Amino acid sequence: MVVATWNVNSIKVRKEQVLEFLKEVGPDLLALQETKVKTEDFPFKPYQEIGYHVVHSGGKGRNGVALLSKVAPKIIKRGFENTSEPESFPDAEERLIGIEVEGFGFASLWVFSVYIPNGGQPESDYYYYKLSFFWQLKEFFEKTFSPEDPIILMGDFNVAPEDKDVFAPGLLEGHICFTEKERRAFFDLLSFGFYDTLREKYPDARGVFTWWDYQFGAFKKNQGMRLDHILITRPLLEKLGDVYVEKSFRTKPKPSDHAPLIAKFLV
């Protein structure tokens, strides 16, 4: 089983690149973020024509999440359910979508695509909205699932968890996506029972990034951050094969500022 996550930074602009990725890599499950379209404007047809089932949730803004699966979903979830303050997160349905599938050795496998808010400036209202989103996300999983359930949560978390996840920790300390409160929120989410796939395979690796600024020649210099993650529960950890960033798609004409992150499982 191959799964992947990719913040495409506009599906309208990257529609053909996603199609190329599906044909070239052939993931069984692909999570997309920042599609930036309403669901009625999402380009379902080209992906369905090559065998993918597609679900999407989006709105007018910069959000939008999707899941593409070779197996038909049994159940679809959008946004937060069973949580204490779902009304406090009006854009949650544009930031979290999940499907239950049967296959890949599991009678029930839940897969989620998430797009965590960027947070704006540290200590701003939007920054605390981001932290609250993390807490609400953890509450959603605690009240809906068990850590023993097979779950994949992947997407753009807008957090680089450790110093080795950014190109210059001293320079970036205190900047958005790399503040202590954000890192604590990320690890608090992991405490539900999630494992960070890349760190499980490569605990000491440095310079492995998924995002690079469009400016300053950042990609060529590999001045990036690891903001995209594939998190899994223990039933999948035992089957984890490899994890890597497909950087070739960051070199395409008009690329996203993110590259796809891919995980392979021995099922």
Number of strands: 14
Task: Give the averaged pLDDT, no decimals.
Answer: 97
Gyration radius (Cα, Å) is 17 Å
Number of domains: 1
What does this structure look like?
- This protein has 267 residues and is α+β, with helices and mostly antiparallel strands.
- The chain has a single domain (2-265), classed as Deoxyribonuclease I, Chain A (4-Layer Sandwich).
- It has helices at 11-25, 44-48, 125-144, 169-172, 180-190, 197-201, 234-237, and strands spanning 2-7, 29-33, 53-57, 65-69, 75-78, 96-103, 106-115, 151-156, 195-196, 211-212, 224-225, 228-232, 240-245, 261-265.
- Strand 3 (53-57) and strand 4 (65-69) form a beta hairpin.
- The longest helix is centred in the middle third of the chain and has 20 residues, at 125-144.
- It is globular, with a radius of gyration of 17 Å.
